[in-house]
């Protein structure tokens, strides 16, 4: 072992010689500001994603499928906003990590940090949902081709995607045993001859319906269906409007989609 | 140097970064023995220990502006030493913890084992038992037993909540007792 004070001598020699220097205080200030900025950004994004999850569940056809019982489970799972929820959970995780790595964050147990972060995010997210940020986002995502719109499109796109076991859209032509409906993806023919329930009223143009069943090529074979108002799933309504315009055009003759 | 001895650690750290780098020698003087004692728990080789100790003081000096003068200096420099020791162990090997003969009594009294163990606790037995503990139990126990650190200081050094430190020390003691009895 080296003599006592040898360590001190070696260290002081390096300091005096200039080979060991103090790191600038601005480096540490910048590090702290970056960490705080990252935390604020992550919390803000988490709140936004929470708001979008609420918005998605409220305005898409996702939850409506659950009203069909067991049959609606598959389309519910297909239309679930996994990406949004995954991003939300990931951001909460990132927020907890950044906070725990901060100068004083380690003092708080993880469960308290998670709880506090979730409370803040949910409160801010609810506020964002209240002021209709979700709808503004949806418009930007589907109507603008800018960077922000493109970046967030994958998160909301599943709200308008095709589901193998479910369909939702606007009736534009009632036919014998079925209807031609407009969905955000295009026109589709729904066969209602195998319905296991009866509709609350007769179908007419402009009505919205949601149905569960099986897809057979271009034809959707409905097993259960329900007439809904456009307000029940406005994301679908707006999707249809963006594609076909707000008022269903009068149709003549047979469609080439079947029947 | 006379003025520097009147300053507490925190004031000294502020003085070093504000005006006089030579005052850092006083910090080394105050912590060299303490940190060497702590590091000896993890590193047996004298040369390696000196290297790690030197690296600790160099790192502490470089990052002196990272020290928050509103907090205590001791846990801050202990944390640097702890991280250096862990890095050293990761790089090389895990050594059996080494304790001084007089520290046997500390373990004996804090674990209250006197009557349960046959005869005097063998130094090797305690060292082996401590070494077998998972790091998460061993690190707070070492600081608590041998460095006489409070829960709050251990919390600052290991960056753990105080309540977690309490739980880890309690569980660590129980596991240690099982190894020893």
Automatic annotation (TrEMBL), chain A:
<feature type="transmembrane region" description="Helical">
    <location>
        <begin position="38"/>
        <end position="59"/>
    </location>
</feature>
<keyword id="KW-0812">Transmembrane</keyword>
<feature type="transmembrane region" description="Helical">
    <location>
        <begin position="112"/>
        <end position="131"/>
    </location>
</feature>
<feature type="transmembrane region" description="Helical">
    <location>
        <begin position="80"/>
        <end position="100"/>
    </location>
</feature>
<keyword id="KW-1133">Transmembrane helix</keyword>
<keyword id="KW-0472">Membrane</keyword>
<protein>
    <submittedName>
        <fullName>Uncharacterized protein</fullName>
    </submittedName>
</protein>
Automatic annotation (TrEMBL), chain B:
<dbReference type="InterPro" id="IPR036388">
    <property type="entry name" value="WH-like_DNA-bd_sf"/>
</dbReference>
<dbReference type="GO" id="GO:0003677">
    <property type="term" value="F:DNA binding"/>
</dbReference>
<feature type="domain" description="RNA polymerase sigma factor 70 region 4 type 2">
    <location>
        <begin position="124"/>
        <end position="174"/>
    </location>
</feature>
<dbReference type="Pfam" id="PF08281">
    <property type="entry name" value="Sigma70_r4_2"/>
</dbReference>
<dbReference type="InterPro" id="IPR013324">
    <property type="entry name" value="RNA_pol_sigma_r3/r4-like"/>
</dbReference>
<feature type="domain" description="RNA polymerase sigma-70 region 2">
    <location>
        <begin position="28"/>
        <end position="94"/>
    </location>
</feature>
<dbReference type="GO" id="GO:0016987">
    <property type="term" value="F:sigma factor activity"/>
</dbReference>
<dbReference type="GO" id="GO:0006352">
    <property type="term" value="P:DNA-templated transcription initiation"/>
</dbReference>
<keyword id="KW-0804">Transcription</keyword>
<protein>
    <recommendedName>
        <fullName>RNA polymerase sigma factor</fullName>
    </recommendedName>
</protein>
<dbReference type="InterPro" id="IPR013325">
    <property type="entry name" value="RNA_pol_sigma_r2"/>
</dbReference>
<dbReference type="Pfam" id="PF04542">
    <property type="entry name" value="Sigma70_r2"/>
</dbReference>
<keyword id="KW-0731">Sigma factor</keyword>
<dbReference type="InterPro" id="IPR007627">
    <property type="entry name" value="RNA_pol_sigma70_r2"/>
</dbReference>
<keyword id="KW-0805">Transcription regulation</keyword>
<dbReference type="InterPro" id="IPR013249">
    <property type="entry name" value="RNA_pol_sigma70_r4_t2"/>
</dbReference>
<dbReference type="InterPro" id="IPR039425">
    <property type="entry name" value="RNA_pol_sigma-70-like"/>
</dbReference>
<comment type="similarity">
    <text>Belongs to the sigma-70 factor family. ECF subfamily.</text>
</comment>
<dbReference type="InterPro" id="IPR014284">
    <property type="entry name" value="RNA_pol_sigma-70_dom"/>
</dbReference>
